[in-house]
Amino acid sequence: MQEGHPIAFESRKLNDTERRYIVQEKEMTAIIHCLRVWRHYLLGATFRIMIDNVATCYFQTQKKLSPKQARWQDFLAEFNYRLEYKPGKANVVADALSRKVELATMNASQPQSTLISRIKEGLLQDPLAKSLMKLANEGKTRRFWLDEGVLLTTGNQM
User: Fold this and answer.
1) Domain that holds residue 141
2) 21 within a domain of the structure (yes/no)
3) Is residue 83 part of a domain?
4) Which SUPFAM superfamilies has this protein been placed in (predicted)?
5) Does residue 9 sit within a domain?
């Protein structure tokens, strides 16, 4: 993410062996995979890795390591990063490992609330909001963007 906006996504299927890993190892597999993909961007930079599994935060301080974990730590030593725990509810960009099945199957075309409809109507009547929406549509601002007709700013705030 940069300035609160996701700039890239990466995913892959776990193989049969990886599917049997414990959650911490699945999280570390995902982290290692992403660091390999984006290595050329991240070497020499300082960055944070946000995770929603508190046990994974302690990976760097474990006393006993399996050979696989030792390889991971050896690879991770190349990077200047910080693992940060962020609870799943607060981590809006959390990976699919921790998401509930029912969230994945939610219908995106659910009826909108009357509050959202009223906000949209208000945006269309406010001259300042109109000008910001025009700038967002033309891609002339990074501070504001439109999502389904609603003007948003940093932190996905309306």
Assistant:
1) 114-156
2) yes
3) yes
4) DNA/RNA polymerases (SSF56672)
5) no
Number of domains in the chain: 2
| CA separation for the pair 146, 79 (Å, rounded) | 35
Q: What is the DSSP string of 73-85?
A: HHHHTTSEEEEEE
pTM value is 0.55
* pLDDT tens-digit map of 136-146: 888 888 888 88
**Radius of gyration of the CA atoms of the chain, in A:** 20
pLDDT digits (tens, 9 = 90+) for 16-62: 999 999 888 898 999 999 999 999 989 998 988 888 877 777 777 78
How far apart CA 150 and CA 157 sit, in angstroms, is: 10
Residue 14: Cβ within 10 Å count: 14
The first and second tokens of residue 112, run together, are 């909108």
